[in-house]
Amino acid sequence: MRYQMAFLGILVLAATAPLAGQQPPQAPIRLGMIGLDTSHVIAFTKQINDPERNYPCRIVAGFPGGSPDFAPSSSRVEQYTKQLREQFGLEIVDSIEQLCGKVDGVLLESVEGRPHLGQIRPVLQAKKPVFIDKPMAGDLADVLEIFRLAKEHGVPCWSSSSLRYNPETYGMRRNAQVGEVIGCVAYGPCAIETVMPDLYWYGVHGVETLFTIMGPGCQSVRRIHTADTDEVVGLWADGRVGTYRGLRRGQKGFGALVFGSKTIHHIDRYVGYDPLVEQIVTFFQTNQVPVAPEETIEIFAFMTAADVSKQQNGAAVSLESVLQAAKEKNRLRRGTPASLSAP
């Protein structure tokens, strides 16, 4: 009898042990969200935590944040926080430092960019990889400072609009039917909020579309601004011209007209958040940023230069001039002597 029991024990162990070469299941990558004041926090949590998608990540915690002086934030933060707690079971914490102690990576979701620099500092100090939702920051100086701090702390960090990963848009630089991209007119809704540069709030989606198709290399912009429309024309270093058209009247869909060496192609379909979520999940698996900081910086320099051009009645404004002004702002607030500042 004793030998029979021992034999049965061996059989049980054999049945429950992993097969040769089979890895035991890994714990999911725990993610936290900062800024529960945008519909994105619901959409991303629903997708990333969907058991049918079987992602290796789970959003487990959130810090509400919010901007009291900005109605699109203050009017929604309580509602979304409650929904995340009650419907999705997220733990709601009292500080960003507390959040960082509970997660492996962070989605910085605050609906407007002004708080982002202050919110990301403890995240970078905690060495947590971070995705920053649009707009990346409240001004160009903050964009530069975020990337500087991320490099200083050795933390992978990136930002993107979901429009970048619209399949037609994302593949346009390598589209054999279109050929070489000679020019582009990207368009989209362009509501303006006065707490940030004009195009940062909603124009960022169309501008990111433009750069996804054209690639970096813009040198200067000119802007025509009316109550209904913005037309921002960029001149690229190789002579190509790319245009962003911001819409505030009539039909306001997203899209782009691409002028190629072989054909003219119209992109007029938006597929939603799924492709961006795939990129976010892959980022937290690999710690590899899918968008180079230099391209994101150029996107925000383009939008900043557009504001300066508006102030100067449509004059051409170089991206280099607004970048230098932003670097000087950062130098002054850090108290760095001019002789020690980066070129």
Topology (elements, then pairings):
Layout: H1 2-16, E1 29-34, H2 39-48, E2 57-63, H3 71-74, H4 77-88, E3 91-92, H5 96-100, E4 105-108, H6 116-125, E5 130-132, H7 140-153, E6 157-159, H8 167-170, E7 181-189, H9 203-214, E8 218-225, E9 229-236, E10 241-247, E11 255-260, E12 264-267, H10 274-286, H11 293-311, E13 317-318, H12 319-334
Parallel strand pairs: 1-2, 1-4, 2-3, 4-5, 5-6, 7-10
Antiparallel strand pairs: 7-11, 8-9, 8-13, 9-10, 11-12
Please tell me about this protein's structure.
It is a single chain. With 343 residues, the protein is of the alpha/beta class. It folds into two domains: 29-159, Rossmann fold, CATH 3.40.50; 162-343, Dihydrodipicolinate Reductase, domain 2 (2-Layer Sandwich). The protein contains twelve helices and 13 strands. The strands form two sheets. A seven-stranded mixed beta sheet has the order 12-11-7-10-9-8-13. The protein has a six-stranded parallel beta sheet with strand order 3-2-1-4-5-6, sandwiched between helices. The radius of gyration is 23 Å and the shape is globular. It starts with a helix and ends in a 9-residue tail after the last helix.
